[in-house]
Amino acid sequence: MYGFEALTFNIHGGYLEAIVRGHRAGLLTTADYNNLCQCENLDDIKMHLSATKYGSYLQNEPSPLHTTTIVEKCTLKLVDDYKHMLCQATEPMSTFLEYIRYGHMIDNVVLIVTGTLHERDVQELLEKCHPLGMFDSIATLAVAQNMRELYRLVLVDTPLAPYFSECLTSEDLDDMNIEIMRNTLYKAYLEDFYKFCQKIGGATSEIMSDLLAFEADRRAVNITINSIGTELTREDRKKLYSNFGLLYPYGHEELAICEDIDQVRGVMEKYPPYQAIFSKMSYGESQMLDKAFYEEEVRRLCLAFEQQFHYAVFFAYMRLREQEIRNLMWISECVAQNQKSRIHDSVVYMF
Amino acid sequence: MGESRGGGCCPPMDLMRSETMQLVQLIVPMESAHLTVSYLGDLGLVQFKDLNSEKSPFQRTYAAQIKRCGEMARKIRFFKDQMSKAGVIPKELLEKESDIDLDDVEVKLGELEAELVEINANNDKLQRSYNELMEYKLVLQKAGEFFSSAHRSATAQQREIESEDSQQAGDDLLESPLLQEEKSIDSSKQVKLGFLTGLVPREKSMVFERILFRATRGNIFIRQTVIEEPVIDPSSGEKAEKNVFVVFYSGERAKSKILKICEAFGANRYPFSEDLGKQAQMITEVSGRLSELKTTIDAGLGHRDILLQTIGDKFELWNLKVRKEKAIYHTLNMLSLDVTKKCLVAEGWSPVFASNEIQDALQRAAFDSNSQVGSIFQVLRTKESPPTYFRTNKFTSAIQEIVDAYGVAKYQEANPGVFTIVTFPFLFAVMFGDWGHGICILLATMYLILREKKLSSQKLGDIMEMAFGGRYVILMMSLFSIYTGLIYNEFFSIPYPLFAPSAYDCRDASCSEATTIGLIKVRDTYPFGLDPVWHGTRSELPFLNSLKMKMSILLGVSQMNLGIIMSYFNARFFKSSVNIWFQFIPQMIFLNSLFGYLSVLIIIKWCTGSQADLYHVMIYMFLSPTDELGENQLFPHQKTVQLVLLFLALVSVPCMLLPKPFILKKQHEARHQGQSYAPLDETDESLHVETTGGSHGHEEFEFSEIFVHQLIHTIEFVLGAVSNTASYLRLWALSLAHSELSSVFYEKVLLLAWGYNNVLILILGIMVFIFATVGVLLVMETLSAFLHALRLHWVEFQNKFYEGDGYKFAPFTFIFTANEDE
Fold first, then answer.
1. Cα-Cα end-to-end distance for chain A
2. Are residues B261 and A140, on separate chains, in Cβ contact within 8 Å?
3. Quick check: helix, strand or coil at residue B367?
4. Which of A242, B136, B360, B547 has CA 20 to 30 A from B621's CA?
5. How far apart are CA B39 and CA B16, in angstroms?
6. Distances (CA, A) of A331 to A33, A71, A334, A341
7. pLDDT at A240
8. Does the CB of B56 have a partner CB in chain A at under 8 Å?
9. CB contact under 8 A, B74 and A60
10. Which of A142-146, B165-169, B261-265 is predicted least confidently?
11. pLDDT of B107 strictly over 50
């Protein structure tokens, strides 16, 4: 019921919205990051984090810490938050929350398949998987030889099954195939999520459309940049772009024919929201693009909290936490490897 | 700021004004800093200020030590966890705390942890192989059952096929399709069938089967049996419900697929032989190894228990030591380092009376740590508002808690807690007047008080803790409710002629039906409280209502007056004549010319027995003050008096509203003007000006804000005078509800059950009566009366004078370490 969320939202969503806003208040602030950046070693980081929401997750770790432990424990916190919210959620919020994890599922599938292709140990791969994207038979992925088998054996039971309809081939898996599969899946996932949010309507669809459109556009740019100089044809490339977003459809046409980064830039600068991102970079450079996109994303995610009575806050919270964990990982790595001068390169501040 | 303690208005009273505090500066040499802080923590009378708030935790001086303590605390948590798993209870801490060195503790903890971890690792390894063998044994048993049953049915079938060829053994087909196939297909076509056995977690078994089926395109045969009791999984060490499975397959490709799937599902595979003889041999072998392992594991566990026991002996001591050390280092981190790096500078609040004790502690610390230089103790001057500190004892602390829950008193503000000690239980008892119930509560709280020592040392439940914390308040409440119960003459709603026989008696024999009409006064008035003869009469309720209502108003008006008088003492104490003249006096006049007058009327009516209608008097005093009073006249010249009072009340409202903001403005202007030409008289303060920095900036003066504030206050007071008085009528309402409820339980349950002349019904009735009395009257009614008394104090009483915007004195002390549970 658009416009009347204030009347009915809190019946089912009020508690969880309160919870998620509480969680949001626990995100690290710029002051926290400043302190973290001054740390001398990982124990300092642990000590600083012990005053934050991560405290109880890190307090029982014995002293020689590793970056992986920190990241693992912080992710555990995210997963616990997520599970708690999922337990409490009712329809359609529970479906919405489920949607959030599909992205991780796709990544995990791709990770395992690529890993097996390169003869890696399954257990080792499983440890690398994001815990949010785990499903029952994930380890069985290793058995599959081609896409069809992959689908028939394992993924038919998972929520990802419908997304597979576009990439069912009997070709043997190789790196290129897998990458295309990832992007096709992602495209289908984003479109499905987009449609679902439209169906929910109200502020949720309004805000989520914006966030998902940004995500789709970012993926389109990344696909273009990554496929420059590969054997991917223009038509194939265009097929991987999601069918919504600011760039759809004219931007996609132009992106599909780009041959170098400066052309991409030319295309993107026609769109005012992205102009700011690209204008910050010097010509021919794509290193800082990721960070610029992350910063823009974080800005948009933070804005989601400005409005009440919608589900996008959950999406935003999960994304912000993930970004925070990325930041922590970067900081920890820099501290552990004594590269403190580079610490500010990749940290995205939030509040 | 009132430095002359009790010099003004009243004799020194500990609870009335909070302790005078001072900001002290300690300059402690580096080498004795630790000991100094430790002694001050024992003393528990200094609240340290954080002088390094701009520094992050790991940039502070003692970050490394805190990390060490954190590490030790982690080890201690690890031990605690291990001990609770093994069921070892740490020994109680002995009274005398022997002095131990932190470094020794650290080394010892490290050694013990390493030892414990090693033992655990060994045990885990053994346990793991034990569990594996356990699983293997199960597989052997269950799979053996498959094979033997399949074999049996196959041979039976064979016999059947032999005897009657035409008959299909349809029902047995499911039991042994593969073996049957094996027999019926001739040997040239026969493919080599392999099989795998193992265990799979039960919740995954369906998916497992499905995936196997899909992966091999249905070219497998799988059998599963449920293991009834949960099995301990070797890899995770947790109990899990599992199924034994046997998978038959053909071909190597299928085998490698199945192996991968098994691995993916965490299904443990075990070798199995078809040969029955070998099976039996395996089973005996496995059983033998199992019993062997069992003894080894037991020995290992015994060793671990001994180790844990030794840890348990010292556990509490270490725990306390580590917590203390951590607290000390946290405090040390709040001190700022002197430029020379040779001493630490501490700043903090302490009560003035503690100066000597603090100096003594400093000296002792300097002496004990063989420091060459002593610590320096000096008092700083500041304009910051000091913390509020009341020295309470176990009796007054609960009452002070009640007041603090509303807001902590401003520094040296008059403390409502002093009066609350008596008025709170009294107002409670007005609503809870029944000496039978009072005695019940008294007994309950006496139990808490008599077992105080024992109960305070142990951990109680949430609700119990609350009751225990407020035990002295409850004691007072019960005593007062016995007192008011005697006045109301109610004992479980039954009146007793305790002090004398009733003053009234029947005129003749016909007055057995209790009405006042047939009664005549035969004796003196009943000496104390309510005459029991009122009970059960038709006019009981009207009489009690009128009595209790008027009493509530009298109590309310006197308590509100007390509140306003308190504001006078506050104004005197803080030397604010504006507040006396333009707040206290008009408020007094306003309240008393309306409701004080009403109280006087009530008393006059009681004394003279007049029939005047007080509602009428009060209402027409406003509506038409010039009208004749007629029969409602209680005393001569009442009309004139009323006119004067009304005039006073009307005049006092603008007095409250207008002058104060203007006077404040004038004062501010005068001060501000003086300031710009002030001589530099306080040059000596520049020595510690950096510590008090920023406090002498002149505060903003916003006239409109002050005026609106005053407007709100005035409106609140004027309206509040009416609504607060009405609010005190809750005393009457609750006391009425209480007595009515208890009489309902008495008459409709106990007397009704008595009337049946049946023992069973009587017992049932008594049970219901007891439960209703305890549940509804003693617990719920107590809570509601408590709540209403609380409200009357917080809102009606305290809003007359109490600011409550101070902050509590939170000294650095070690007491927390004893009972804090992390």
1. 32
2. yes
3. helix
4. B547
5. 30
6. 9, 11, 5, 11
7. 87
8. yes
9. yes
10. B165-169
11. yes
Between positions 105 and 144 of A, the ones with CB within 8 A of B are 122, 136-143
| Exposed/middle/buried for residue B514 (C-beta within 10 Å: 0-12, 13-18, 19+) | middle
In one-letter notation, the amino acid at residue A248 is Y
pTM above threshold 0.90: no
Smallest CA-to-CA distance from B536 within B680, B808, B312, B739 is with B739
Q: Which residue of B has its CA nearest to A58?
A: B74
| DSSP codes of every residue in B56-117 | -GGGSTTHHHHHHHHHHHHHHHHHHHHHHHHTPPPPPPPSS-----HHHHHHHHHHHHHHHH
For residue B92, give both structure tokens: 């109680």
DSSP state of B637: T
Task: Please name the member of A43, A59, A139 whose beta carbon is closest to the beta carbon of B67.
Answer: A43
Give which of A213, A199, A104, A200 is closest to A160, Cα–Cα.
Answer: A104
Point out the residue among A40, A60, A143 whose CB comes nearest to the CB of B261: A143
pLDDT band at A284 (very low <50, low <70, confident <90, very high): low
Q: What is the mean pLDDT of residues A282-304?
A: 82
Taking only the tens place, the pLDDT of each residue in B497-548 is 888 888 877 776 666 555 556 677 778 888 888 888 888 777 888 889 999 9
Flag whether pLDDT at B175 surpasses 50: no
What would you report as the CA-atom Rg of chain A, rounded to the nearest whole angstrom?
Answer: 21
Give dist(CA B755, CA B740) in Å, integer: 21
For residue A309, the tally of other CB atoms under 10 A from its CB is 18
Three-class DSSP category at B507: coil
Q: Under the phi-then-psi rule, with left for phi > 0, alpha for psi from -120 to 50, and beta for the rest, what region is B237?
A: left
pLDDT band at B240 (very low <50, low <70, confident <90, very high): confident
pLDDT at B369: 83
Q: How many CA atoms lie within 13 A of B816 on its CB side?
A: 12
Is any Cβ of chain A less than 8 angstroms from the Cβ of B58?
yes
Candidates B54, B55, B58: best to mutate against A (most CBs of A within 10 A) is B58
Q: Please list every residue in chain A whose beta carbon sits closer than 8 Å to the beta carbon of residue B214.
A: 152-153
pLDDT, tens only, B694-743: 444 456 678 899 999 999 999 999 999 999 999 999 999 999 999 999 99
Which candidate from A62, A139, A153 shows the least CB-CB separation from B215?
A153
Res A215 pLDDT > 70: yes
Q: What is the ipTM of this complex?
A: 0.71
Count Cβ atoms within 10 A of the Cβ of residue B129 and give its class: 0-12 exposed, 13-18 middle, 19 or more buried.
Answer: middle
Q: Which amino acid is at B441?
A: I
Backbone angles phi, psi at B222, to 5 degrees: -125, 140
Percent over 70 (pLDDT), chain B = 88
Query: Cβ A153–B263 below 8 Å, yes or no?
Result: no
The residue among B503 and B618 whose pLDDT is bigger is: B618
Task: Find which of A116-120, A213-217, B630-634 is predicted with most confidence, using mean pLDDT.
Answer: A213-217
| Higher-confidence position of B176 and B455 | B455
Q: State the pLDDT at residue B698.
A: 52
- Which residues numbered 7-46 in A keep a CB inside 8 Å of some CB on B? 34-35, 38-40, 43-44
d(CA B72, CA B78): 10
Bridge partners of B269, per DSSP, are B198
Distance CA A19, CA B376 (A): 50
Do A136 and B207 lie within an 8 Å CB cutoff? yes
Sequence-distant contacts of B521-524: CB under 8 A, at least 24 apart:
B524/B500
Among A342, A297, A304, A305, which residue's Cα sits nearest to residue A324? A297
Of A50, A51, A153, the CB nearest to B214: A153
B20-46 exposure pattern, b = at least 16 Cβ within 10 A, e = fewer: bbbbbbbbbbeebbbbbbbbbbebebb
Query: Which chain A residue shows the shortest CA-CA distance from B55?
Result: A35
